[in-house]
Amino acid sequence: MARSHRDIPDEAFLEQCCRIATRDGYVYQGTRRPEPNKAILPSQADSRRVKTAQDRDEDYRRRVVNYADAYTDTHGTICGQPFVYKTGPPWPQRTEPSYHIVRFSRELRPVNNHPITDSWDGILTDVEAYLKKVGQAFTAVMGVGFANQEEPPFGPGLDLEPPFCPLVMTIGVEPETVAFEDAKTIADYVKANILGKAGFPDIDVAIWEFTTSFFGTSGPRLPPLDPDIDAETMPLRVPFTSTLGIPISPFKDPYVEGTVGLFLTRGEGKDDILGLTAAHVVSPPFVDLNNIRRPEMVSPYAIPREEIAVLGIEAYERAVTCLVTEIGSLQLSIRTKNETISELKEELERGEGNADDVSSDIEFLARSVRIAQYTTAMYDTLHTRVTKSMSVLRGRSIGCVLHADPIGASDGPPGSEYTNDWAVIKIREDAFKKEGFLGNRVFIHDRLRFEDKTFAKLMFPNVAERKGSSYPAGGLLEIRGVVPADEMRVPTQLNAHGEPAMPVLKNGGSTGTTVGWLNGLKSLVRHSDYANFNVDFTSRETTIIPYSAREGPFAAPGDSGSIILERTGRVVGMLTGGGGTPERAEVAFATAYYDLEKRIAEVLPGTRIYDYDCPPLYPLG
Q1: What is the pTM (predicted TM-score) of this model?
Q2: Which terms are listed as keywords in the entry (predicted)?
Q3: What number of CA atoms fall less than 13 Å from residue 465's CA on the CB side?
Q4: What is the pLDDT of residues 92-128, one digit of tens each?
Q5: What ranges do the domains of the chain cover?
Q6: Are 348 and 290 in contact, with CB atoms under 8 Å apart?
Q7: I want to staple 259 with a disulfide (CB 3.0 to 4.6 A). Which of 153, 245, 496, 538 is the partner?
Q8: CA 405, CA 596: separation in Å to the nearest integer?
Q9: CA-to-CA distance for 237 and 378, rounded, in angstroms?
Q10: What are the C-alpha distances in Å from 368 to residues 228, 334, 355, 372, 382?
């Protein structure tokens, strides 16, 4: 049942909202999630220097003298970082009638069901051994495809251009750390002596300036999100509810932000609610994981003192600012419509125009004003609640760290190591309103909607697969099950061309809902961050490719801990970081959940995914 609003919003507050909405001449248009956190990790910021235009010109000339296609090969990609060198013939270029070469805009594509799949882990092992032997530091070794971006008009559901390069091995290196001659030697050796001897001599190798980083920068009695009541205000309510993904921050450093991506539980009942996130999110750099949170030091229900808040300093400010800006936008709309109504009434009194048409226009505008006033009252009530009870960090505490594994590579046979970077939060009993608690449902309606068919177009690019499929009620996708290893290597889903490809999604505390493609080949990633986490290790990472260049990055700082799902709600993995540049991640990295759940059960016996009754679904057609 809808709520009544007896209190009229304060006029002074509404005026302030209008000023914020029109600041710098900008009028806020519609509801949207807070903008992604563009923060740079401290270790990266300290070593960066702002380059002048002259510096950039010199860099460009230096690179293209050695490798002419350094920038052409990667032009248009999200991070835009150049290749130092690539083996093989030049990639296709577009030539205009004037014979002037115009760069194609490129984008990455996932690799699935390729003949190299069964040999890939062994190849990565050999590449890592070779790079260690020659003393070459690397950031990530990936197997990805490259394609040209499709031409305008843009729009969801258009067939993607087929990849002109179905597979290239990229070896990532820190920018400006590898000379061209060394890059050429390494790439040529890997192509001839590793890929060639493995039976794949035609696959090329590129040395790519490509960095990697963790994505952590970037009791409130949280209510559930009720689609029946909150339908018009859901996008701006989500940060202040118990709906996944939940933006979080440690008390010890509230500017470090991440996401609770999954609810877990233990025992027979469902009263014990736990939250899964990344270890580097709940543990600021000055906290020593190895000394204070080993499994044997934590009893099953002990609550260590590392307290966690929903919404860090910046996330809370962004969420409240978006709320205030939307109120101001609604007020400006109401004023404009009321002025138009007054003009139409005067027109009616003068007997001008068709009386029935003018009266109909007045009624339509009046109805729009009433809806805007009602929505304003709902936003005002929400603003009052969150600024009164949640403005102080202590009022946003949702629990404490129950366990955080030391960050590093997992134990296991060579080639099976995954990134061990997870933590479990014991949610306070008074943190959530238990009445109507939705459990593991992820809000996707901010990006994937039923009414405009974005969910169907992006998550079911092959039209034949939409038959018998459904859209989650209220835009809340329930988590159900885990994608097995075999299906992650060779997906059963299809892209628009009928080829195996798994579209995935996530909702993170920083970027909201985003979509991408699961890459069937894992990447060999080196995590070297002594300044923040005192770690230096390599692991095999599940890799997420951007859905397309126009969709932008899959994740950003503040999204660490988000759970990556395929379209039916099965868990793919937990987001830990990404690679490209500190500002723009070309790819995202994750720990596969089929590996992670084994480790969680080993450390916290009896822990499982929190389950709940399935919601109704809307057929896609």
Answers
A1: 0.81
A2: Coiled coil
A3: 22
A4: 886 555 445 567 899 999 999 999 999 999 999 999 9
A5: 11-30+314-389, 64-209
A6: no
A7: 245
A8: 11
A9: 10
A10: 20, 8, 20, 6, 21
